[in-house]
Amino acid sequence: MNDCESVRQILQEIGYSLTDNGREFRTRPLYRDSDNDNVLRIWKNSGQWVDFKENISGSLEDLVKLTLKLKNIEEAKEWISSKGINVNETEIIKHKVTVSQPAFFDKSLLLKLRKDDSYWNNRGISSATLFAFQGGVASSGKMFNRYVFPIFDSEDHLIGFSGRDVSSLTLEGRPKWKHLGDKKEWVFPAKINYKDLKSKKEIILVESIGDMLALMENGIKNILVTFGLNLPNKLLYFLIGMNPHRVIISFNDDGSKNGAGNMAASSALNKLSNYFDKNQILVKLPSTAKDFGEMHLKDPKSILNWYNSIYE
After folding, report:
1. Total-model pTM
2. Peptide bond into 175 cis (omega under 30)
3. Is residue 142 part of a domain?
4. Strand 24-27 vs strand 40-43: parallel, antiparallel, or unpaired?
5. Residue 132 CA neighbour count, 13 Å, CB half
6. Which residue has the higher pLDDT, 142 or 89?
7. CA distances to 10, 43, 61, 172 from 67, in Å
8. CATH of the domain at 57
9. In the chain, which residue ranges form alpha helices assigned H by DSSP?
10. Using an 8 Å Cβ cutoff, are 54 and 47 in contact?
């Protein structure tokens, strides 16, 4: 019996119903309540696993112990041996599962942000919408003359900043947005709208904070920001853990230019299709402008019209 078949037999013996997905199996965790058939990922050649919802991982023996509620790893090994399944640890290829740890920033940095919402107010975003984000304008440093949004993780650690240029003069080579921290680790703004994401069971993916603010100003709060055209794994794993009924991909409509947002939406659709049924995924780009910020600035009602058209 090869390593893959040994791993499969052990998992089926303890009650797992497996979906074969190339190099790994996917299933729902039996050690906790869940209706998500994709949230537990187990590598075939090693039995190493990761639970995207709980952000925990371990060896095959760890999974046996956790699922059967055994006292220790030795009991798990004895259980495997009692089933006559030959698992030679020296022969199984160990697949290292790593959970990255982003750097933390000192929260005292937030005290240096000047409360000035005028840039966003001029774009139709109210101070009431901005309040929960704890942002402000940086008067010095790497984010000088940018409206800075702090980025927090699920444990309220400050792990980054995203800053929009608000200077009156546009300097050559100065990007509109600047990020500090590892944006691949960001799930924003989950700290603020987690309850909305959970209760709505529908998540809209947008490229930028500006798009998110335009939607929130119109009462649409079930949004996550990708900070660009790629769908980072951290954000993907969060989506898997949330197990929404539907994921709506709403990147910018760049069809009249280079089509980057359109192609990225197609790429995100393909990536999500590996984890969700296709009827759970919808591509719904902005309708009357290339992005939601422009839509809101031209005609705020157009965003609600766009949102309502999803259900038509």
Report:
1. 0.80
2. no
3. yes
4. antiparallel
5. 14
6. 142
7. 12, 17, 10, 58
8. 3.90.580.10
9. 3-13, 60-68, 73-82, 118-121, 127-130, 190-200, 209-217, 233-242, 260-272, 292-298, 301-309
10. no
Amino acid present at 189: P
Residue 306 has pLDDT above 90, yes or no: yes
Question: Cα 155 vs. chain centroid, distance in angstroms?
Answer: 15
Same domain, 129 and 166: yes
Task: Say whether both 196 and 312 belong to one domain.
Answer: yes
- What sign does the dihedral 8-11-13-16 (CA atoms) show? negative
Contact in structure between 162 and 226 (CB atoms under 8 Å): no
Which domain covers residue 37, as residue numbers? 3-82
**CA 228 to mean position of chain CA atoms:** 13
pLDDT in tens, 179-235: 999 999 999 999 999 999 999 999 999 999 999 999 999 999 999 999 998 899 899
Taking CA 311 as the corner, what is the angle to CA 310 and CA 312, rounded to the nearest 5 degrees?
A: 100
Q: How many domains does the chain have?
A: 3
> Same structural domain for residues 195 and 152?
no
Give pLDDT, residue 41: 92
Under a CB-based contact definition with an 8 Å cutoff, are residues 87 and 60 in contact? yes
48 with 128, same domain: the answer is no
- The 3-state secondary structure of 27-84 reads ECCCCCCCCCCCCEEEECCCCCEEECCCCEEECHHHHHHHHHCCCCHHHHHHHHHHCC
